[in-house]
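Bench notes, bay 3.
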Amino acid sequence: MSTPTVLFLWTHNAGRSQLGAALLEHIAGDRYVAASAGVAPAETVNPAIAATVAEVGLDITDHVPRKVTAELVESADVVVAMKPGLEIPGTPKRLIEWSFPEPAAWDTDSVRPLREAVADALREEFAN
């Protein structure tokens, strides 16, 4: 049996989706493969997101936002949209929609509560 893949999506793949993927790898270990993508990817990961995950021992500074494709969506076991309403190419096997605020202009102090909220949601959904 293969390890299930969880794909985290949002528009720019610079903040929430990168945060979700990094934290899932941290929380769930080798029980899931985490990936992330966006419909209109930014050039870099949000520095405040990278800083807050570094505080829990994760380094995503070398991650590059990437564009989501129908193939990527359809190959994932679970797709997590980090805010409802995202137009997703392809047909997800399982879609979860969470509603987290946009951290694009936030500093590290402001992102910490978001990091904890995402971690809590991941524990609730994927810890079993």
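Next record in the batch:
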Amino acid sequence: MSDLSLTPAIATTIFVIACLSGYQYRRVWKAEGPRWQLWLFGLIAACGILTVGFLPMQTP
């Protein structure tokens, strides 16, 4: 078992946070909101999706 692996619960949590951040990114973008919010939500969403996509999940 690798030290860098995700449990299913942690992976699900990260995915949900990434999805909510992506939704918030889209809301700020369509409202032409502050750029710092675009960067914040975009980075959170991107890091979450990349983490879930590239780190392996633990298997029993």
